[in-house]
Design brief:
Blueprint lengths: L1 E8 L3 H12 L4 E4 L18 E5 H9 L3 H7 L2 E3 L1 E6 L5 E5 L9 E5 H10 L7 E4 L4 E5 L5 E5 L3 E9 L6 H6 L3 E17 L6 E7 L2 E7 L5 E8 L1 H9 L2 H11 L7 E4 L3 E10 L3 E2 L2 E3 L5 E2 L7 H21 L7 H30 L3 H15 L2 H11 L14
Parallel strand pairs: 1-2, 1-11, 2-8, 5-13, 11-19
Antiparallel strand pairs: 3-7, 4-7, 5-6, 9-10, 10-11, 12-15, 12-16, 12-17, 13-14, 14-15, 17-20, 18-19
Helix pairs in contact: 1-4, 1-8, 3-4, 8-9
Length: about 400
């Protein structure tokens, strides 16, 4: 039987970030991975269709674990302005990062770029073991830890972390209860080129059928789009040829960037809210999509997961500092209290926004538009909203704090 102090199941951005942070502390960490490949030296000329809007707090996490420069070497796309408006009326809000003294709101980064940068640095840590050829078959939870049975070995650990995504094996095997609800929407993603330059401005139009977001990429005429709509509408959009899609997309964003001149192949996926009723049990913790998934309208899913990882690092540090056994449940519950409360608030806010902007009742539509315009005229309120969107909350995990 192999033994490790901490075992992380999952080699996505969240799992790899957590592995880096713990290995930097010379902890005995194992990563059970399926998709580790040799990291690419440079970004592909073609954009990855899946991107994330990375906040300043998430940027600081990547800097803290020493991978930010590797990400920048490949490709990042900072955005400095945001324009949001309501399709049903005159309501609109404009956010400018300069108003709060920041050079940018955050960065649009391809998921493959983050993964490649994180993978490249793994070999530097002598206390980190990567298992790339194990198939998990069973989880046993004795009183003093967790036992993972695999196709050819058995692993004992004092802390097991499920970072294995929305369909988490760890979550299911450990028996974590899950709240789940469909948003009744499909997200369509693509990379597009526009007639006019985006000027590093993110655009979002709220329509009764769902939000449409244009996220600026590092070439002035390239953007990543996320178009959320009903399943029937999504099926129709996915059936368009490229010319029809580009025309309808330009109309949907009200030609803010002129014509759509080119689009990549499109992908679509259903939007589902998932939230584990608990994030921890003795010797087990969930992070990232294993614990929660959220509507992409605010682009916060990846950032929530990175803050999960950073908070869990703080709690594990405290176990060592206080000389408590690894997996000590009262401290694991501290992680759960901090992150589940914050994530639940974000989930409820996104659900509220979806319901608010999909409602077409005239009185509510009018109030919604007036509210957006009033917000746009109140500097203190806009500043508060911008700071939250940047991830600059009052209390942040150590890795996310400004140095």
């Amino acid at each position: 039987m192999k033994q490790h102090d901490i075992v992380i199941v999952g080699d996505g951005v969240i799992g790899l970030t957590l592995a880096h942070a713990l290995a930097q502390r010379e902890m005995d960490v194992a990563l059970i991975a399926k998709n580790i490949t040799s990291a690419v030296t440079n970004a592909s000329p073609q954009y990855d269709i899946r991107v994330s809007a990375i906040t300043l707090s998430s940027e600081r996490i990547f800097k803290s674990i020493g991978v930010w420069d590797k990400i920048v070497e490949r490709r990042v796309s900072p955005f400095r302005d945001m324009r949001v408006w309501d399709a049903t009326g005159p309501g609109q809000i404009h956010f400018d990062s300069a108003w709060v003294g920041q050079p940018h709101f955050g960065n649009i980064i391809e998921n493959s770029v983050m993964l490649a940068a994180l993978q490249e640095n793994l070999s530097r840590y002598p206390t980190l073991t990567c298992y790339t050829d194990l198939a998990l078959t069973e989880l046993i939870l004795p009183a003093d830890g967790a036992i993972l049975k695999t196709n050819n070995d058995t692993i004992f650990t004092k802390i097991l972390v499920g970072a294995d995504g929305a369909n988490s094996w760890v979550r299911e095997q450990a028996g974590f209860a899950l709240e789940q609800q469909s948003y009744d929407q499909i997200a369509i993603v693509a990379t597009i080129q526009t007639e006019l330059a985006h000027q590093e401005t993110a655009l979002q139009r709220f329509m009764p059928t769902g939000p449409l977001a244009f996220l600026p990429l590092n070439h002035a005429h390239d953007s990543s789009i996320v178009w959320s709509c009903s399943p029937d509408m999504a099926a129709q959009i996915m059936a368009y040829d490229d010319e029809q899609f580009c025309q309808h997309l330009a109309e949907a964003i009200e030609f803010k960037l002129g014509k759509i001149t080119h689009c990549s192949p499109r992908q679509s996926f259903p939007l589902v809210m998932r939230h584990a009723k608990h994030y921890v049990m003795p010797h087990v913790a969930l992070v990232g999509d294993a614990a929660h998934t959220i509507h992409p309208l605010a682009g916060q899913g990846m950032n929530m997961g990175l803050l999960d990882a950073a908070e869990l690092v703080d709690v594990i540090d405290k176990m060592y500092q206080l000389k408590r056994p690894l997996g000590y449940l009262p401290l694991l519950r501290q992680y759960e209290r901090e992150r589940r409360t914050a994530n639940l608030l974000m989930i409820r806010m996104m659900d509220g926004f979806k319901r608010l902007f999909s409602n077409t009742q005239p009185i509510l539509t009018s109030a919604r538009n007036q509210g957006m315009n009033i917000t746009n005229k109140l500097p203190w309120l806009k500043t508060m909203l911008m700071q939250h969107a940047m991830g600059n909350q009052l209390e942040l995990p150590s890795l996310a704090q400004e140095s």
